[in-house]
Amino acid sequence: MKSRLIASGGEKTYVLIFETGDEFVFGLQSFAEENRLAGSHFTAIGAFQSATLGYFDWQERKYIPIEIREQVEVLILAGDIALQDGKPKLHAHVVVGKRDGSAHGGHILKASVRPTLEVVLSESPQHLRRVDDPDSGIALIQL
């Protein structure tokens, strides 16, 4: 993954370019930790050679994996980064398109890029925090 800071001031804007074989979730999480991100939002387009999405099962209180084991276009990927237990925590959803035009979406758990994924990320000077929500069993942003 390559990155460049393209704007700074009150809000910083980064462009991240993932290349073939890069693992998106690991790469963005590492970038967030290295740059101490704590109040970011991002969007991305590109393609994956494979991905694991998740559907949150309310009764089980866990993500049910949805395996995508083929080349797909990333139609939209959007998410945020907030602090959870003092560390940056990534939360992102994606919609991917298959060769036949069908689409699949969900929480992104893992994804391998091919040939590229272009991410635009903005970091606010205000930090966001996630706190475990006992009703849902997931960490939610607390204002």
Q: What's the structural blueprint in terms of helices and strands?
A:
Blueprint: E1 2-7, E2 12-19, H1 24-34, E3 39-57, E4 62-68, E5 72-84, E6 87-97, E7 103-123, E8 129-132, E9 139-142
Antiparallel strand pairs: 1-2, 2-7, 3-4, 3-5, 3-7, 5-6, 6-7, 8-9
Keywords:
mainly beta; 60s Ribosomal Protein L30, Chain: A; 1 helix; 143 residues; 7-stranded antiparallel β-sheet
Unreliable spans: none
Portion in beta strands: over 45%
- Which superfamily, in CATH terms, is the homologous superfamily? Hypothetical protein, similar to alpha- acetolactate decarboxylase, domain 2
| Biggest sheet overview | 7 strands, antiparallel
The helix/strand order is: EEHEEEEEEE
| CATH class division | Alpha Beta
Termini separation: 32 Å
What structural class do you assign from the helix and strand content?
mainly beta
Count of discrete alpha- or pi-helical segments spanning 4 or more residues: 1
CATH fold name = 60s Ribosomal Protein L30, Chain: A
